[in-house]
Amino acid sequence: MRIENPQIASALPEMGVELHSGVALATLTSLRIGGTTDLLLVRDHKHLPQLIRLLDGHGVPHRLLGGGSNLLVQDGELPWVCLQLAAPGEGVRLEGNKAYVDCAADLGHTVTFCAKRDLGGMEGLIGVPGTVGGALRMNAGAYGMQIGAYVREIDVYREATRSIETLRGAEIRFEYRHTSFAPGDIMLAVRLELISKPYAEILQGIRICNEKRRSSQPLNQRSAGCIFKNPPGLSTGRMIDGLGLKGFRVGDAMVSDRHANFFINTGRATCADMLALMAEVRERVRAAHGVELEEEVIVWNDERKGHM
Ligand code: EPU
Questions:
Q1: Residues 150-168: tens digit of each pLDDT
Q2: 240-254: buried (b, 16+ CB within 10 Å) or exposed (e) per residue?
Q3: What is the pTM of this model?
Q4: Which of 179, 228, 238, 248 maximizes ligand 1 atoms within 8 Å of its Cβ, making it the mutation to test the pocket?
Q5: How far is 267 from 184, CA to CA, in rounded Å?
Q6: Which of 69, 208, 226, 291 to mutate to test the pocket of ligand 1 (most atoms within 8 A of CB)?
Q7: CA of 237 to the centre of ligand 1 (A)
Q8: Nearest alpha-carbon partner for 41 in 71, 8, 64, 10
Q9: What does the pLDDT look like over 84-96, one tens digit per residue?
């Protein structure tokens, strides 16, 4: 979708918003899949309510793009514009064992920054790509920890009130790869309470997680991490693997031969290829195990019900 209305275009600079026309989301997602739209880069969080009011007032549909690492986007001209929060400089400020983090900051950078200053707890998240905001929305986790456990306070643009609110961690439900945030809520800044421990000790934990991840996940290929959630008590990767589906493909979308819950874009996979591969794998797991797999990846596809 293109922003053609001059009233919108002329109001953007005073809100510190940059308009990037015709951006291919394939260049901004880890799957390297996704069509084209206008991207609005928001440099100052405080203008977000005003920007959203402006877009809504002119009937321009919009979605918030985070780090693009857990996202499958439809192809072609997209029917909404994307908002993205500009990456901050350092993005982290420390006070004792509290870290104040800009949600557009890179998650890995944040974990390392805190570790070097003797603040740990989030070692498991070291190899998880994406922004802090994306990790909060999904309650990203790995190796026995989840980011939600460290949240003390969060500034969020709330869809319901159309304003920026500060919530206490306890007011938010952080569940397995799911939170109580509304789809239109936008994470802006978070205060994390971390664990004081020496860098050397944290580094040891980071190295162990990195090693585990390297040995079991296809890190240098185009994926969105795990494509399905693990059903309670079960491992999706093990079930798909057990059905002999590693290397199974639809077009250029393929079940990784390293970890069967990672689906790879081996070249020019389309969103339709990836969705067809997901549907086929889901069907086979249902037939063999009687289990309905739930997506872990966020799908932006208007042709399908149940999208976010
Ligand atoms: N397994 C197989 N074949 C495979 C993949 C896995 O047999 O192809 C087996 C493994 O040998 C192991 C079990 O399945 O016995 C579980 O595998 P793994 O330890 O790799 O963990 P996972 O349950 O597949 C989860 C998260 C990952 C996270 C890791 C490490 C989900 C859906 N996945 O994977 O998160 O990195 O644990 O904690 O919760 C993500 O969120 O995108 C993600 C990749």
A1: 999 999 999 999 999 999 9
A2: bbebebeebbbbbbb
A3: 0.96
A4: 238
A5: 32
A6: 226
A7: 6
A8: 64
A9: 999 988 899 999 9
